[in-house]
Amino acid sequence: MATQQMRSPTPEGVSLAAAKIAQLLPKTPLIEASLHDLPVWFKAESLQPVGAFKIRGAWHRLTDLTEAERARGVVGVSSGNHAQGVAWAARRLGIAATIVMPRDAPRTKIEATRGYGAEVVLYDRPGGENRDAVAQKLIDQSGATLVHAYGDPWVIEGQGTAGIEITAQLAERGLDGPTRIVCPCGGGGLTAGLALACPDAEIVPVEPEGWDDVRLSLEKGEIVPVPDPKFPTQCDALQTPATWPINFAVLKERVARGFAVTAAEVRAAQRWAFANLHLVIEPGGAAALAAVLAGKVPVDGRTAVILSGGNTDADAFARVLSTTD
User: Fold this and answer.
1) Which residue of 222, 226, 242, 310 has the fewest C-beta atoms within 10 A of its own C-beta?
2) What pLDDT score was predicted for residue 6?
3) The pairing of beta strand 74-77 with beta strand 97-102
4) pLDDT (tens digit, 9 = 90+) per residue, 231-256?
């Protein structure tokens, strides 16, 4: 598939994206709470207008399109959060957007994407159609620009702006920048962006078990796809078959290792966030918190945890709250 990667993401690009986003959106809260008898800082990206951090990369990408590219529209691939980010940005900029989404994506995400005015094209996963191939066919027909969920330099830079905000918010509290940022990881766009934004911090990606291809890739020093694309997970936002070279080029230089969390650990994290932070966090958005709560990732007084999204069905969230593992 043509990736339209005309350049590599850079720290300077993250700074440019941060300036653009600061003119559009207020900083999401950085909430202090105690874990393991230490203060931990929680970045509430679930409170973005589209309920997830994906609005950052989408805005940076779409605002850098030429007038000719805007006229031809954009095509995105997403299980739901990037879809909403692209649709939101496209509507605000007057750009036609088509999003390729899995048929089994949460209904609330599909409906929200359509609600922002995007056309949604559904495909079957797992073991069915290839979403990138579906998107490429649409691009070949229309000449639209691909806005990939993670394999795009502008998207990577845009996601990294969360790290710029964390550093500024800690400074407002009289603290130096974060020593560690723990983040949910799907394709690695957020992880790579944070690595560019915060070179002095340890960046720790966390994936759901069975979908921890970034962890495996870091261990082996080369891109490794998900071993079983039919492995069940409630973390729909993190179901990516493999990272892309543009992401891995950053990750292999800046990220030492990743972690995987179980379904039970994710549910426990959702319940903890609701009880202690009063936040609704979707499964994928709770992965980083799950690793910290389980003691898999250590914390100190300047550890930040990204709560990356809150787009979950009410019924599904109610079931998580009403059960114990």
Assistant:
1) 222
2) 67
3) parallel
4) 999 999 999 999 999 999 999 999 99
- Hey, what amino acid is at 140? D
Taking CA atoms, 259 is separated from 34, 189, 204, 209, in Å, by: 22, 16, 8, 9
Q: What is the pLDDT of residue 10?
A: 98
CB count, 10 Å around CB of 150? 26
How many beta carbons lie within 10 A of that of residue 234, not counting itself?
20
Q: Give the position of tokens 């330099």.
A: 153
Q: DSSP secondary-structure letter at 144? A: P
Nearest to 93 by CA among 110, 109, 71, 113: 71
Buried residues in 48-85 as b, exposed as e (16+ CB within 10 A)? bebbbbbbbbbbbbbbbbeeebbebbbbbbbbbbbbbb
Q: What is the spatial distance between Cα 8 and Cα 19, in angstroms, rounded to a whole number? A: 19
Helix, strand or coil for residue 39? strand
Residue 272: what are its φ and ψ, rounded to 5°? -65, -45
DSSP string across 62-78: HHT--HHHHHH-EEEE-
Bridge-partner residues for 34, per DSSP?
39
Q: What amino acid positions are annotated as catalytic residues? A: 54, 79
Q: What is the mean pLDDT of residues 191-215?
A: 98
